[in-house]
């Protein structure tokens, strides 16, 4: 056929009513087994695909999921999207993607202009300094479920999926200590994000456990780019009493720090250890290769979408907080 197959086409070929075909496809109790098998066999033969827009008018389901996230160009979020897609497409859901560019104003505008009547749910990773908590709650109050991932809104009762930022940071810093580094700095992400605070706490607690000094001047907060990492490291190593190791909030910042260290003639690993957080593919390309904490980005995408579908299909589904562990990968940048 030169057009999409409809249930009318199936009904006509089998000489039965449209309503019978519809009930057979939905597997209702009032269609006999022989008729159901004939309908399903012909639907498969004709490559029938359900019209979710039409079904939505009856079932109040659009089979559309909106995903709101800060970036799409970095490795972490693109991998999360891949995990979301695997689950969504398996269950015949479409994805509508919104990118905030890490702007709270853009995030707020997206939420205000969402066509919620055409959505079954939202997956959200909030922007830095997001002030849209009230608007997210208003969306939930309309009956549209939300699941937060990675960057979460703590004040809203709904499911959240995160990596273990605290223990990942603790393990990264302890790895540096075990390699013999004693003066460890932290170039952190923006202070307004909960996972930034968790990674900072992991850093501080690891130093405390091993009796190492904590210097406020060795903690620098900024953005997540390579340029931010370069500038942060420039501040740290412009002083006479500079650190002998750097724990970075992500791999891009860590690589930026490495650029600055090279410019200053310092040997990475032998003189100054560097460890990141993400396991961005570029960490294996730079010289020396970058030690890091690998985040379970793909699994975070899958799990967040699975939880959203549970919220969609069971309105009284109890919210879950899911924390997935990272994995330490030791490379050349922490080898003395």
UniProtKB/TrEMBL annotation:
Keywords: DNA-binding, Transcription, Transcription regulation
Molecular functions (GO terms): DNA binding
Domain HTH lacI-type: 5-59
Pfam families, A to Z: LacI, Peripla_BP_1
Source superkingdom: Bacteria
Protein name listed in UniProt: LacI family DNA-binding transcriptional regulator
């Amino acid at each position: 056929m030169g057009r999409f197959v409809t249930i009318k086409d199936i009904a006509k070929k089998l000489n039965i009513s449209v309503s019978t075909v519809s009930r057979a496809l939905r597997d209702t109790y009032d269609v006999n087994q022989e008729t159901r098998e004939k309908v399903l066999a012909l639907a498969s033969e004709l490559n029938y695909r359900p019209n979710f827009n039409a079904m939505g008018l009856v079932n109040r389901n659009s089979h559309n999921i909106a995903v709101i996230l800060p970036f799409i160009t970095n490795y972490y979020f693109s991998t999360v999207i891949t995990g979301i897609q695997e689950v969504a497409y398996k269950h015949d859901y479409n994805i509508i993607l919104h990118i905030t560019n890490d702007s709270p104003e853009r995030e707020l505008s997206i939420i205000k202009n969402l066509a919620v009547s055409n959505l079954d749910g939202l997956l959200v990773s909030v922007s830095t300094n997001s002030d849209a908590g009230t608007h997210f709650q208003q969306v939930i109050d309309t009956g549209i479920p939300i699941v937060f991932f990675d960057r979460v809104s703590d004040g809203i009762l709904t499911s959240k999926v995160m990596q273990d930022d605290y223990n990942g940071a603790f393990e990264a810093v302890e790895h540096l200590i075990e390699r013999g580094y004693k003066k460890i700095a932290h170039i952190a992400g923006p202070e307004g994000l909960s996972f930034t605070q968790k990674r900072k706490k992991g850093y501080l607690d690891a130093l405390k456990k091993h009796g190492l000094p904590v210097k406020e001047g060795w903690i620098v907060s900024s953005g997540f780019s390579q340029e931010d990492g370069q500038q942060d490291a420039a501040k740290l190593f412009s002083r006479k009493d500079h650190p002998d190791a750097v724990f970075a909030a992500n791999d891009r910042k860590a690589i930026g720090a490495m650029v600055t260290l090279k410019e200053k003639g310092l040997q990475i690993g032998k003189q100054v250890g560097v460890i990141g957080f993400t396991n961005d593919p570029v960490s294996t390309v730079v010289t020396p290769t970058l030690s890091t904490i690998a985040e379970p980005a793909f699994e975070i995408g899958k799990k967040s979408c699975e939880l959203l579908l549970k919220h969609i299909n069971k309105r009284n589904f109890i919210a879950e907080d899911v924390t997935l562990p990272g994995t330490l990968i030791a490379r050349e940048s922490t080898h003395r």
